[in-house]
């Protein structure tokens, strides 16, 4: 677990840079949007009183933005060791929540998510039902969502190609 000092940073910029560097995963592609978040959009979210963010537009955030420090453990568990720290350092060095390093991190992470989803066969896994101690256990597979999720993943591939050209 790593505590990251954010006392010198605008909290809206922190939320925006973490969102911009993050990647969608699994069913998150249903809500995925390549449009970067800016300070104003992040501030609107913070102005609602929310400081804990689980998912934003299909991207796992797993952060609490309150006070002068952040715990990086959960964000890093989804986006890679040191991911939160790298995003914060990028914000500090450029003063921008969307910069080339953040953009490249997002593109690489999203490509990896697509490869994991399609290459592993995860997208075609059926829902399984088993019984343990007279209790039904459901393991939800993505095959049930293939008709909707498949086109969203294909759309994400196209959007990433467009994003690379910008």
Strand content: 15-25%
What is the percent of helical residues?
A: 40-55%
Number of strands: 6
Largest sheet: 2 strands, antiparallel
Mean pLDDT over all positions: 94
Please write the string of helix (H) and strand (E) elements.
EHHEEEHHHEEH
CA-atom Rg in angstroms: 17 Å
Shape: globular
Oligomer: single chain
Instruction: Kindly report how far apart the N and C termini lie.
Output: 36 Å
Structural class: alpha+beta
Please give the order of strands in the largest beta sheet: 1-4
Give the number of helices: 6
Key terms:
166 residues, alpha+beta, two-stranded antiparallel ribbon
Characterise the protein shown here.
The protein has 166 residues and is α+β, with helices and mostly antiparallel strands. It has one domain. Helices cover 48% and strands 16% of the residues. It is built from 6 helices and 6 strands, in the order βααβββαααββα. The protein has a two-stranded antiparallel ribbon with strand order 1-4. A two-stranded antiparallel ribbon has the order 2-3. The termini are far apart.
Concise synopsis of the structure shown:
This protein is of the alpha+beta class and 166 residues long. The protein is 48% helix and 16% strand.
Please write out the topology.
Elements: E1 3-5, H1 11-21, H2 39-47, E2 52-56, E3 59-64, E4 69-71, H3 73-79, H4 83-94, H5 100-119, E5 128-132, E6 135-139, H6 146-165
Antiparallel strand pairs: 1-4, 2-3, 5-6
Helix pairs in contact: 1-2, 1-4, 5-6
